[in-house]
Amino acid sequence: MERMPQEKKLEYLLRSSKIVAAGFLGDDPRSPEQIIETDLTALMHLGYTVEQVAERMQELTVLAIPKLGNPVQASGRLQICSEDYKGEIICPWPHPVRLAKRVTTARRLDTAESIRWSDLNIHMIAEHGFFEGIGSAFRVEPAVLVRVIFEDFAGPV
Amino acid sequence: MNISSQLWLAAVTCFAAIFTNNILLMYFLGLCPFTSVSREVKTAFGLGVAVVFVMTCTAMLNWLAFRYILAPLNLEFFRFIMFIIIIAAFVQFVEMVIDRYSPKLYHALGIFLPLITVNCAILGASLFMVIRDYTFIVTVGYGFGSGIGWLLAILAMAGIRQRLAHARIPRGLDGPGITLIIAGLMALAFIGFTGVLG
Amino acid sequence: MGSVALAVMIVSSIAAGLALVLVVADRFIANYGECTITINDERKLNVQGGKNVLSALTEEKLFIPSACGGRGTCGYCKVKATEGAGPILPTETPFLTPEEIEKNVRLSCQIKIRNDLKIEIPEELLAVREFEGVCAEITDLTYDTKLFHFELQDPPTIDFVPGQYIQLLCPKYKGNREEVYRAYSIASDPAENTTLDLVIRRAPNGICTTWCFEYLKAGDAVRFNGPYGEFRLSETDAPMVWVAGGSGMAPFVALLHQMRNENIARSTTYFFGGNKAKDMFFIDLMRQFEKDVPNFRFVPVVVAPDAGEQWDGERGLVTEALEREGGDLSGHEGYLCGSPGMIDASIKGLKQLGMTEERIFYDKFA
Question: Is the domain defined by C34-125 classed in CATH 3.60.15.30?
Answer without folding.
Answer: no
